[in-house]
Write a structure and sequence with these properties.
Layout (H helix, E strand, L loop, with lengths): L3 E4 L5 H11 L4 E3 L3 E5 L12 E4 L3 H4 L13 E3 L2 H9 L4 E4 L4 H5 L6 E8 L11 E13 L4 H9 L1 E5 L2 H13 L7 E5 L2 H6 L6 E4 L5 H12 L1
Parallel strand pairs: 1-2, 1-9, 4-5, 4-7, 5-6, 7-8, 9-10, 10-11
Antiparallel strand pairs: 3-8
Amino acid sequence: MIPKLLVLRPEPGCSETLAAARKRGLEAISAPIFAIESVPWDAPDPVQFDRLIAGSANAFRFGGTQLDELTDLPVVAVGERTAAAAREAGFTVAATGQGGLQALLDTIKPPAQLLRLSGEERIDLAPPNGVSMVERTVYRAAPLPLADKVIEVLASGAVALLHSGEAARRFAAECDRLSIARDRISLAALGPRIATAVGSGWARIQVAPEVTDAALLAMAADMCH
């Protein structure tokens, strides 16, 4: 039997990945384990900074009206999805990465002063010498319980997509809390850090060859078949 594919990422990304998976003929199920929500924050004076750096489109989707004070800052975006959200919010994109936020940060030449907009859970970054960075938390991921139908699918065996380390840790904890056997579940991870975060004991874990949703889905399709 071909296993079902669980999409764990929050909206609006969940629906986008579901649609792309179904175009590939996969039996994909919506199973978000987080809902993204805004948090209160104050925008610093933009004259202090040269650029704004962001690792998620959520920074622009949930940043609120405070973003209006920062639109003169060019954006360094982790990927095309984040860049598109920045443009929609009225920003100009100076650079778009492909290999993760640290790799993108490493390309910035000093001297530079950056403002990073991110969620409560984020990876630690090490700016190059001569590059300073101030961080602001503008959104958070509120945990959601797994639906009963999702629990049933997991108990019978499934492939789950992991888009972030936070999702990986949350998913592992939920499976353990619900006494769902890890060795019946295969995992498709967007990157090596995510695969590490989810722990061991799963049927198998594979890491996408590129940090893109398309690469992740192509790999997951092979895992399902």
